Amino acid sequence: MSKSSILTTPTHLNAAAVLQRNSTVHLLYCSPLSTDSFKSRESATGHPFVEHLSVNQRAWNSLADSGSLFARTATDEECRTPLKSLDGRGWLPDSVAGLRVLCLAAGGGWQSILYAAAGAIVTVVDLSDSMLELDLRESRRRGYHVQTIRTSMEDLSMLGDESFDIVHQPVSTCYVPDVQPVYREIARILRDQGLYISQHKQPVSLQVSHRNERQQFVIGLEYYHQGPLPAMTDKSYREEGTTEYLHRLEDLVGGLCTCGFVIEDLREPRRADYTVDVAHFGYRGRFIPPYLRIKARRQTRSTEEHSAAVTPAGLWLPR
């Protein structure tokens, strides 16, 4: 990527204002993602420092560079019917044209491209440079305008309050130690009655430690496990090289409710396949549910909440 397409800006700056002043900017760097910057940023916001940010950034750069399935870009056929490709459940409105959409932790040139094909005003946030490069490459190739921001999902401070109509987040909260900062940021940047669609790894899926000699899946991790998940020899359970965390249902579902959302629907996508070999994820899906899919709506802010909105001195937090 050329230096001309990169903007470095303090995290307290409003990215929308910067991007309006310079419409040629494609990639907004919120801060250099070195270990030292992670330490200082998390210390300032009160989050305990762990190396998950730098570790996961390297891992996802590697996955993207190696052509992982997770870095599959949108096809021409998918772009012809983008909403159908994005939303087989009917959770999205009939049209997203002109709506402001944040694809959160969703780099890779798939989700952002489909929303752009449907006429949305698209911003994509991701921790990985290589994943964002795919969004940039595909948007340029297809003639779409997609803004990309490299930052962690816990820190969206460069985005303004109530600046999005839809936030769409694929499976990714397993890569952060605490989902509450993520939910609070999404609650802040979504407008009243805005839509939040997210997917999360099921707790039991992350509790699996290994298979026994009978090809049975062993729940070897405690449900109330704290901290990063232990390393595994079987790489088929997790994305290679990443640091992951187990979040309980009270965190994933209850946490949404305490951050100002109403849950409108919840699905457990069926991934069982009775025709595949035992090494295939479809076999595992017969016994272990892989993830949750949640449709949530941002509640209308009260007068008190509006009066406590973000100021230069602090950040409004949902009650």
Question: For the record, what is the CATH homologous superfamily label?
Answer: Vaccinia Virus protein VP39
Q: Count the strands?
A: 11
End-to-end separation in angstroms reads 42 Å
Helix-strand category: alpha/beta
Task: Give the topology string: H per helix, E per strand.
Answer: EHEHHHHEHEHEEHEHEEHEHEH
What top-tier CATH class fits best? Answer: Alpha Beta
* CATH topology (fold) name: Rossmann fold
Helix content: 25-40%
**Total count of domains:** 1
Number of helices: 12
CATH architecture classification:
3-Layer(aba) Sandwich
Radius of gyration: 19 Å
Q: Numbering strands along the chain, what is their spatial order in the largest sheet? A: 1-2-5-4-3-6-7-11-10
State mean pLDDT (0 to 100 scale).
84
SSE map:
Elements: E1 6-8, H1 15-21, E2 27-29, H2 35-45, H3 52-65, H4 76-80, H5 82-86, E3 100-104, H6 111-117, E4 121-126, H7 129-142, E5 146-150, E6 164-169, H8 180-189, E7 190-201, H9 203-207, E8 208-211, E9 217-219, H10 249-258, E10 261-267, H11 281-284, E11 291-298, H12 303-307
Parallel strand pairs: 1-2, 2-5, 3-4, 3-6, 4-5, 6-7
Antiparallel strand pairs: 7-11, 8-9, 10-11
What does this structure look like?
Helix 3 (52-65) crosses helix 7. The termini are far apart. This protein has a single domain, classed as 3-Layer(aba) Sandwich (Rossmann fold). It is built from twelve helices and eleven strands. By secondary structure, it is of the alpha/beta class.
